[in-house]
Amino acid sequence: MRIRPLLAVLSTALVGALGVTSAASASPPSPNIIGGGTVSSAPWAAAVLSNGSFTCSGSVIAAQWVLTARHCINGTMSVRIGSVNRTSGGVTRTVSATYTRSDLALMRLSTSVSTSTVTLANSNPPINSTNSIYGWGMTCYSGCSASTQLKTATVRVTSNSVTDAYGGQAIRSTRINGNAWRGDSGGPQFYNGQQVGVASTADGSSIQNYGSVAYNRAWITSVAGV
């Protein structure tokens, strides 16, 4: 299946970008995990909202910083943090500034939050390693909305030399028990307890490309200090 951008057609060679557009949209929103299972606790998880509507997933990397995908940034941004339910619980914060590189975006929160944060990796995961992905994306290829509860799935890394939606280095993986789809954009991929990737594009069937945290690590530190 052809990989297409989930929010807009960026390249005929890409999978759809993983952000959610609208429940009434003719094409399915960006990645929500298809398959996998639900998560009961993830205090570092961030539901990303654009103009008050859920659009993407993200992760808390510091008290005042959330990491998500660049293609998720549009309009007035805010986040819900500390709840596995994207519609209630936890705390909400407005975003005071955004910074982008490749298909990664750093969102500075208006005020800090008190919660656990993810640990960012300094290297890409090994080929054939089993990784975990998280997000509130759609649970089927078409005809369904984004998941209300955070989901997770396991995937197998096949390459560290593909590109994300903006040409940056990306990690490609294939489905083990689930795959990313629209709404999962910006969500994290973990290997050995560290975040290695940020959901960028997918084909809605098996393949997903996650922007490499290691490739952008120096930039993240220069902006967010972590």
Shape: globular
Task: Determine the N-to-C terminus distance.
Answer: 37 Å
Helix content: under 10%
The biggest sheet, with number of strands, parallel, antiparallel or mixed sense and barrel status, is: 6 strands, antiparallel, barrel
Number of helices: 1
Low-confidence stretches: 4-15, 21-32
Oligomer: single chain
Spatial order of strands in the largest sheet? 10-11-12-16-15-14
Number of distinct beta strands: 16
Proportion of beta-strand residues: 35-45%
Mean pLDDT: 88
Protein structure class: mainly beta
Radius of gyration: 15 Å
What is the helix/strand order?
EEEEEEEEEEEEEEEEH
Question: TL;DR?
Answer:
By secondary structure, this protein is mostly beta strands.
Give an overview in words.
This protein has 226 residues and is mainly beta. β14 and β15 form a beta hairpin. It contains 1 helix and 16 strands. A 6-stranded antiparallel β-barrel has the order 10-11-12-16-15-14. A 6-stranded antiparallel beta barrel has the order 4-5-6-9-8-7. Strands 2-13 form a two-stranded antiparallel sheet. The radius of gyration is 15 Å and the shape is globular.
